[in-house]
Design goal:
With 206 residues, this protein is mainly α. It is built from six helices and no strands. Helix 1 runs antiparallel to helix 4 and helix 2 runs antiparallel to helix 3.
């Protein structure tokens, strides 16, 4: 790690950790959605919206701190990218829950639970990794595993698409369900973006 002669604004570490913890909350709500009947989904969606708003607040706090800090712990562009990518994850998870409610989906296709399990694991890994930005240690296994999970998510997504187009569902239902599984896939991609940004930061700081 490079030796610095200037003090650094360290509150960013806590804010990134808080943002990642909020994503774990969102992933748990996704898991809860799987076992919920239609009557309970609206309440889960409301809690997810609250979590998404909390994520927005965390992102805005990071941007405000970035704009008001003369010295930052690492490159400003990387701080902006990392905060934005964390926010994207929460946005996609909230969108998926909202679509399930708005489309009044009675039953999600088999395989969606695997998508959500991958997201939940990626959320846990991300929350564990964020505090390590302070020391830039124990991060390599994190981004390797998240990239592996994203590859797994890709495979699950392709199988889900094949299932949706096998003739079991009518055309309107296919459109609804495809949009939901596509948004969950975008969440997995966003986790990979976060991991790739962390890798970029770690390489620069080494």
């Amino acid at each position: 790690m490079r030796f610095r002669l200037t003090p650094r604004e360290t509150s960013f570490y806590d804010m990134f950790a808080a943002s990642a913890d909020n994503i774990v909350t969102g992933s748990k709500l996704l898991m809860e959605l799987l076992g919920a009947d239609a009557s309970a989904r609206a309440e889960i969606a409301e809690r997810m919206r609250a979590a998404e708003h909390a994520g927005d607040d965390a992102t805005h706090a990071i941007f405000h701190q970035l704009n008001s800090s003369f010295i930052t712990p690492f490159d400003r562009e990387d701080i902006y990218t990392l905060a934005g990518s964390l926010d994207d994850i929460m946005d996609f998870m909230e969108e998926a829950v909202d679509l399930v409610v708005l489309y009044q989906v009675e039953e999600l296709p088999k395989g969606v639970e695997q998508q959500i399990e991958v997201l939940a694991r990626a959320a846990e890994l991300t929350a564990e990794a964020m505090p390590n930005l302070r020391t830039m240690t124990n991060l390599t296994e994190y981004w390797i595993e998240v990239n592996r999970l994203e590859n797994q998510a890709d495979q699950i997504h392709r199988k889900l698409l094949a299932q949706l187009f096998n003739g079991k569902y009518d055309a309107i239902e296919v459109l609804k369900l495809k949009q939901i599984v596509d948004v969950l896939e975008e969440a997995a991609d966003a986790f990979e973006h976060v991991a790739n940004t962390v890798e970029t930061i770690a390489v620069k700081e080494s």
